[in-house]
Amino acid sequence: MPKSSDMDHLTNASDEQLMARVTARDADAFEHLYDRYAPVTLGIIVRIVQDRTEGEEVLQESFWRVWNQAETFDPAKGPFRAWLFSIARRQALDLLRRRNVRPQAARDENEERQFEQAAAPDNVGEAAEQAIATEQMRGAMTHLPQEQLQVLELAYFGGLTRQEIARTTGLPLGTVHTRARLGLQHLRSLLGAGKNDE
């Protein structure tokens, strides 16, 4: 059991200091990082997978990777949170890819409740349109070149700025800007083509 002074030190430690201890297999430091970032990471994951139960499983898998791959974290390449969100996003997208191999399951009751809560009587059409747009966006993103997809996923699902994306990926900022612009143009083209096909 850690002493209270040690617990205070961990509470006030930076992410990088905690990760240095996690690399040395300090479970208390890992627990502090989990408590610090689990809620916001779960929020990002659930936005991607649209299911809280699956999101919680992805969260556990993501932190398991943080523990097992702690020595690969390099603070010179970007902040811990960007590294963590990148791991979580990859795990969530892997889940979506595995899910898409199987026939699409019908909406579960929880998804139905979320849809009903989002759709007040006077904006049901708007809510439905938004849900369809989200599905179209997900579908269109699978057709992007990998380098454009990486940048847009970090921005759209990871909530990172272009400067943070540059630090996380090690890419020059100009390259990030270019890939984001080309990716968005490609997306607009794909989504426009989808509308014309209807």
Written account of the structure:
The protein is mostly helical. It has two domains: 105 residues, Rna Polymerase Sigma Factor, Chain: A; 56 residues, Winged helix-like DNA-binding domain superfamily/Winged helix DNA-binding domain (Arc Repressor Mutant, subunit A). It has ten helices and no strands. The longest helix is centred in the C-terminal third of the chain and has 25 residues.
Features:
Arc Repressor Mutant, subunit A, 198 residues, mainly alpha, Rna Polymerase Sigma Factor, Chain: A, globular, 2 domains
Summarize the SSE layout with pairings.
Layout: H1 4-12, H2 15-23, H3 27-49, H4 52-68, H5 80-101, H6 109-118, H7 124-141, H8 146-156, H9 162-169, H10 173-197
Compact summary:
The chain is mainly alpha-helical and 198 residues long. Helices cover 77% and strands 0% of the residues. It has helices at residues 4-12, 15-23, 27-49, 52-68, 80-101, 109-118, 124-141, 146-156, 162-169, 173-197.
Low-confidence blocks of residues = 102-124
Order of helices and strands: HHHHHHHHHH
What is the general shape?
Answer: globular
**Radius of gyration, in angstroms, nearest whole number:** 19 Å
Main structural class: mainly alpha
Please report the number of helical segments.
10
Could you name the CATH topology of the largest domain?
Answer: Rna Polymerase Sigma Factor, Chain: A
Q: Which range does the strand content fall in?
A: under 5%
The structural domain count equals 2
Bin the helical content.
over 70%
**How many β-strands, per DSSP?**
0
CATH superfamily of the largest domain: RNA polymerase sigma factor, region 2, helix turn helix motif
| Largest sheet: number of strands, sense, barrel closure | none
What's the N-to-C terminus distance? 63 Å
Please give the CATH class of the largest domain: Mainly Alpha
